Amino acid sequence: MIYIYMTVLATILIAMSDFVASTTTDFALGASYRNVISKSLYGLAFFVIFIPGAIRSYVGIDYTTYSKYQIPAVLEGREVKVESLYRWVIRIGYLIGGKSTYQYIFAITNFLIVFFLFLYIKRLSSNKVLSIIVFMSTGFFFFSLSGMRQSIGVAIALWSLKYIEEKKFIPYVITILLASLFHTAVIIFLVFYFLSDIKINPFVVALVMLAVNRLAPHLRNIIISISDRVGLYSEYFGGTFDTGGYNKIFVVLILLVMLFVCLSRLVLGKEVFYKNNTALNIHYVACMVVAMISYLPTPSRLLFLFIPVYITLIPNLVVQYKNIRVILYLIVISLCIFFMYELLFVQNSYGVLPYNHVS
Prior knowledge:
Order of helices and strands: HHHHHHHHHHHHHHHHH
Radius of gyration: 21 Å
């Protein structure tokens, strides 16, 4: 139940933060005091999400892998696939812990993920409360307790999307390159800067998905060939995780978002719809993954490069609706409750239950 308590408390604090920031009545506090209180409430919401992840113990399927294999290998100087910046997280966390515990490594990791996610939400979300609900319920939070290096990289990459909005190429490239030093796969986000002015009709994407699905076996061979040449992701093909299995709940999530995106293209019109163009393009890549999902190894981890963009995409589309906005909020929140129940209580996604913490 702790994850539900976290979600409820964080959303209440953020709702209070937004209320204080928007209060302009005569008897209200001065603007500077309102700003301090609003930021303090938002900061409290950050700690509500950060602390449980920081003090967890053997929560998440990769916690044991890191504790028993990857962290000791880095500290002992043995060969292990861990990117350079995360090696520094390991060394610094171990040093802070007096070289007697790994717990500070997990604390720093969770801090980086949640910190950049909160910055991303604050900068790019039109409804921060709904963003937190989407973050906590649609899988990325649970994934972040296992796929830690990837989650840091993705969180930084999402935060850096503001540079696309501001047309700042150099800061964007530098940030993505730094993010890739936590997880190499994040380098794919470089592409989205060059796609930022390309506006793609979602109905065309739907047709392309059908074609990709039919051609998936042939496309797999092409991807393997490219992967072997560039040395990225190649070790997964033909390996232990290349089974053709995948979590259907994420396919449902992406298809539902695609349905909403198509509806929004019809209802909102081009000018409003394409205000979210970069997030839409990231979503379309997730759609392509879904189109050939049974032909890709570890497809869920691959999807979690792109699914987190829903944290802002969904709220930013919902707020554009005028007459049925409240109805859409209720539908989205109801679906989030369903996804959270399915992922947490039915699937125990990424082994986040039972929750244990360090004593």
